[in-house]
Amino acid sequence: MKSITYVLFLVFCQVIAAHNILLGPYGKQCFFETLKKNDELAVSFQVGSRNPHNSEQYTVDFHVISPNDQVLLKRIDLDHGDEKIKAATNGKYTYCFSNEKTSRVDLDVSFNIHGVVYVDVNDPKSDTLDYAIQRLSSLTNDVKDEQGYLVIRERTHRNTAESTNSRVKWWSMFQILVVAANSMFQIYYLKRFFEVKSVV
Q1: For 185, phi and psi rounded to 5 degrees?
Q2: For the whole model, what pTM was predicted?
Q3: In this structure, are residues 112 and 145 in contact, taking their beta carbons and an 8 Å threshold?
Q4: Does 12 have pLDDT greater than 60?
Q5: Is 31 within 8 Å of 109 (Cβ atoms)?
């Protein structure tokens, strides 16, 4: 019974692991995870736009702060990332997504939190069914995060391709109009050039 409850808890955790936020202009959003020493925290994220007709590649700043307010990791102008840190001490580790330098209003950040809980190999609990289930859950989350990342990348690239196709279509129509106008002008000019004018 305890194992079934644990599996259901892990499935519930897996469902709530994916996050999606909208960063406002000059905005910043922070989240935190409570880690123990030697635990690993990994954050994978992708920046896009909620407007399906927007092909611009947006970027955000990302940083991680330790429990004693030291900046452990700082990345600037990323459109996607897969960042990982290892906890040096127990405590609350804060990670933030920042749009503080721009006024873009539709920055859509999708991110997943995953990591590795440190297990001492000399600990007798490491050879239990609970540990095996936890490890399997961690691997399943990694696969799920990778699939979510690929879906978002595909959406961003599809928006770029559709925008490019639209621009090529309108440019081609403009070229056709220019060629047609040029042809009409040449016909008119040549017709007038070969007209015979009689003087009365």
Answers
A1: -65, -45
A2: 0.54
A3: yes
A4: no
A5: no
Q: How many residues does the chain have?
A: 200
What is the rounded CA–CA span in Å between residue 9 and residue 119?
A: 19
Q: Is residue 12 in a domain?
A: yes
Report how many domains make up the chain: 1
Angstrom distance (rounded) from CA 45 to CA 60: 10
Does any domain span residue 195?
no
| Residue 129 predicted with pLDDT over 90 | no
Of 71, 62, 63, 141, residue with least CA distance to 109 = 62
Which two tokens mark 147? 């699939």
Q: Measured between alpha carbons, how far is 115 from 36 in angstroms, rounded to an integer? A: 12
Long-range CB contact pairs, 181-188, < 8 A, 24+: none
Residue 164 lies in a domain: no
In a domain, 170, yes or no: no
Domain that holds residue 138: 2-157
Which tokens in the block code for residue 46?
A: 């992708």
**Band of residue 181 on the pLDDT scale cut at 50, 70, 90:** very high
Backbone angles phi, psi at 139, to 5 degrees: -65, -40
The Cα–Cα gap between 198 and 189 comes to: 19
pLDDT tens track for 150-167 = 887 788 788 888 888 989
The CATH number for 65's domain is: 2.60.120.680
Q: pLDDT band at 184, cuts 50/70/90?
A: very high
